[in-house]
Amino acid sequence: MIIPLSVGLFISGCKDDEECPTVDYAVLDAAILQAQGLHDGAVEGTSLGQYLAGSKADLQTAITLAQAVRDTDCVTQVALDAANTNLAAAVNIFEGKKITDVSPANLIAHWLFNGNADDATANGNNGTPTAGHAFWGAGAAPQLAADRFGNANYCYYFDKGSNIEVPYSTALNPQEITISLWLKMEEQANNDYIIALNRWNGWKLNLQDANFLFFTIKCTYNGGNAWYDRDSNPQAITAETWTHIAITFKDNSMNFYVNGELKKAWDNTPGTPVAVDNVNMSIGSDLPTGKYSTEEGDFYVNWGGFFKGFIDDIRFYNIALTETQIGSVYTYEFENTVE
């Protein structure tokens, strides 16, 4: 039982036959009381203001450990202070698992693929399904197909360079980026370009060897240009399986998420994305069909790649979402058809 703060000051916890140090329980008592109140008033779930599943149990474990230190016979002040520090860290982690809203202003585009390639936001970043380039086999424009819930015409199937072209906008070239989407990949050696803006001269997301997620971004740093190629190794994507993936980027931080969980974090990517020169964005290939060149040495020569499989529910933000926010997007979209 927690001793009331009014009598918790400078009381030693010694045994009758020991001389124990004089300590101050007040700070830890207050921290335990506050943490327990936070825990008891919290609700786990998937709605705004709720906490991710399992987070309350983790906090309760930290509270119990702090209480055990507080109840230790002849405890030292050093141990009490350390327990307080550890509990404070656990509370911070717990608060980080609270589901918070992402301002609609930060959602630059939301391609639901529910019957078309239109942007569900008011920003007008509508896509156009386009046949692939002859170099890739001139695949027909992406075809509407059943999504992961079995809803007919609620996602797109891509193959042989087919892509969805989105007109260039500076909004698609922000200083921070989050890309969240679902995919079902059919494995083959085609570099699996999922979404790109001027490929490695802007940014691109694809799969590389062993099906690791692979994100490339060109940044300005220290007065020059820097290219960052990072992957999700050892986390791979399983073929023929609907999977949620997300990538976040901001100055000196690139994170890869699979099914709502952080799988790889990089902290060696300093700088800000370069301004891309009016190249349309492409979903399903590294470039829009009409941008490819057949001239040797041209930057846009056909040496990129395309995606084969299904893509659905793409969100594009101009901020780097937190782990909790990514988790909440995954949880909601795992359980619900997005309309």
Characterize the structure shown.
There is one protein chain. The protein has 339 residues and is of the alpha+beta class. The chain folds into 2 domains: 5-96, Substrate Binding Domain Of Dnak, Chain:A, Domain 2; 104-335, Jelly Rolls (Sandwich). 19% of the residues lie in helices and 28% in strands. The strands form 2 sheets. Strands 1, 3, 4, 6, 11, 12, 13 and 16 form an 8-stranded antiparallel β-sheet that branches. Helix 1 packs antiparallel against helix 2 and helix 1 packs parallel to helix 3 (77-96). The radius of gyration is 26 Å and the shape is elongated.
How would you summarize this macromolecular structure in one to three sentences?
The protein has 2 domains: 5-96, Substrate Binding Domain Of Dnak, Chain:A, Domain 2 (Up-down Bundle); 104-335, Sandwich (Jelly Rolls), CATH 2.60.120.200.
Report mean pLDDT, rounded to a whole number: 90
Number of helices: 4
Give the total of beta strands.
16
| Gross geometry | elongated
Low-pLDDT parts are 1-13
Topology pattern, helix = H, strand = E: HHHEEEEEEEEEEEEEEEEH
How are the SSEs ordered, and which strands pair?
Layout: H1 26-41, H2 55-70, H3 77-96, E1 107-111, E2 128-130, E3 143-145, E4 155-158, E5 163-166, E6 177-185, E7 193-197, E8 203-207, E9 212-221, E10 224-236, E11 243-250, E12 253-258, E13 261-266, E14 272-273, E15 281-283, E16 309-317, H4 323-335
